Amino acid sequence: MPAAEATKQSQGGASSVVYQGATKRYGHSSAPAVDHLDLEVEAGEICVLVGPSGCGKTTSMRMVNRMVELTEGDILIGGESVKKRDAARLRREIGYVIQQVGLFPHRTITQNIATVPQLLGWDKERVRARTAELLALVGLDPELGDRFPVQLSGGQQQRVGVARALAVDPPVMLMDEPFGAIDPINRERLQNEFLRLQAEIRKTVLFVTHDIDEAIKMGDRIAIMKQHGRVEQYATPSEILITPANEFVEDFVGSDRALKRLSLMRVGDISLWRAPNARPGQSTAEVRAELERPDVEVPYALLVDERERPQGWLTKRDLSGDTVPATADAPLGPVLETSDVMRDALADLLQGESMYAPVVDHNGRIAGILSIEIISEFLNSPVAATEEQSAVERPLAPDRASEIAADE
Predict the structure, then answer these.
(1) Does pLDDT of 313 surpass 80?
(2) Residue 211, C-beta contacts closer than 8 angstroms, at least 6 positions apart
(3) How far is it, in rounded angstroms, from Cα 399 to Cα 79?
(4) Type and span of the H or E element at 24
(5) Which of 69, 129, 139, 398 is most buried, taking the most CB atoms under 10 A from its CB?
(6) 404 pLDDT band (50/70/90 cuts)?
(7) Residue ranges of the alpha helices (H) in 152-262?
(8) What number of helices (H) and strands (E) belong to the chain?
(9) What's the rounded Cα separation, in Å, for the pair 209 and 177?
(10) Residue 12 φ/ψ region, left for φ over 0, alpha for ψ in the -120 to 50 degree band, beta for the rest
């Protein structure tokens, strides 16, 4: 292929994907595998196709790069019909990651990543620079480039698969249950790492999974599909969890919708209550007066040090003297951070059998008080129905760097 044409095919950026009555029938079957699918995926978003086995989600995804040819309808990428494109060239411009990775066992990691650039006629120096860039982008040591797939762990191989899919900076990526064959611990790490990567590259991603929890974590928008590729609801994770469109969606999402909603939020995402703060040596009369105010949100005083760090809960006996003591009778119980996942914070409250938990910022200073009542009020408030973050902005594992190191 001429160098000019090869350069043109490395489009970069992100493109929208629009299904227009996309239909697929196999042979003489009367029932289509996908029946008039209408769906619009905005550029730079992760759209997760999720549903029971055999519902047509993988077929729907593979029609985008024409690995499955449309029977009727059309699919537009960046406003251009896929049917007008040469199928082989189209596939080279679209990243594709599958569950079993699909690396060539006889080729090194560097050679695997370079597969499509070499097909497009890139010169050796450009290929070398791009493979080195991608190894760094997916968090792999450059020394691994000379190894063969069998010498890498499953998680490392999956990262190579992502790097290969990104080789020519495609505007669209297709991911078919990419983490389904990985053990649960490494699966979470890879999910987190891909979301970190997506924050940098902002590709349009069609992501197929059968796991609703993975869909909620990974998707900016989720298409919940029924048989024949019929979309029962296409919405953000919050919308689906709060207002499922019908009984099928409600059953598919599960009865723990509220807990799933909490997994999308940090403690700092909601308005916390305030407890009267008291310092050692302060007049107890002042503290008691604040506790008696009608607008007090927490009926207990919190002992803090000179740096506003919580030390314990003050009891009536603590406040019976003239001044606040240096130590509190009641222990703090669980101490949360504003960056904690709300679902984990709720678990800490329940496990600690605590009505209230101090919340601190990254410096350890008191930021507010969380209670089960606050969580309940928020989930039932109008704000919860509109509160939404993109997939890359949601809380991930608390120590991503150590997780990645452990995977190595």
Answers:
(1) yes
(2) 50, 180
(3) 40
(4) strand 17-24
(5) 139
(6) very low
(7) 154-165, 184-201, 212-218, 237-242, 247-253, 257-262
(8) 17, 16
(9) 5
(10) left
Top-level class of domain 3-264: alpha beta
- The partner residues of 235 in beta bridges, in order of sequence, read 222
Residue 14: both structure tokens together: 């992100």
CA distance 247 to 253: 10
Give the three-state DSSP class for 187: helix
> Residue 208: phi, psi to the nearest 5?
-100, 135
Q: Under 8 Å CB-to-CB from 104, ≥6 apart: which residues?
A: 111, 112, 115, 149
Task: Give the sign of the dihedral formed by CA 383, CA 385, CA 391, CA 397.
Answer: positive
Nearest to 138 by CA among 110, 177, 115, 102: 110
CA dihedral 255→258→260→261, nearest 10 degrees, is 150
Cα–Cα distance, 149 to 113 (Å, whole number): 11
Length of the chain counted residue by residue: 408
Sheet holding 310-314, edge to edge: 277-278, 301-304, 310-314
DSSP string, 85-118: S-HHHHHHTEEEEETT----TTS-HHHHHTHHHH
Burial-class residue 218 by CB neighbours within 10 Å (0-12, 13-18, 19+): buried
Domain ranges for the chain, please list them: 3-264, 268-386
Q: Are 368 and 272 in contact (CB under 8 A)?
A: yes
Residue 169 falls in which region: left (phi positive, over 0), alpha (psi -120 to 50) or beta: left
Query: Model pTM?
Result: 0.78
Class of domain 268-386: alpha beta
Residue 95 and residue 170 in contact, taking contact as beta carbons nearer than 8 Å:
yes
Q: Counting Cβ atoms within 10 Å, is residue 317 exposed (0-12), middle (13-18) or buried (19+)?
A: exposed
**Are the C-beta atoms of residues 198 and 46 closer than 8 Å to each other?**
yes
Answer for the pair 79, 238: CB distance below 8 angstroms, yes or no. Answer: no
For the cut 60, the answer to whether the pLDDT of residue 329 exceeds it is yes
Joined tokens for residue 170 = 């495609």
Instruction: Retrieve residue 393's tokens.
Output: 């902005």
Residue 101 scores a pLDDT above 80 = no
The string of pLDDT tens digits covering residues 10-43 is 345 899 999 999 999 998 777 899 999 999 999 9
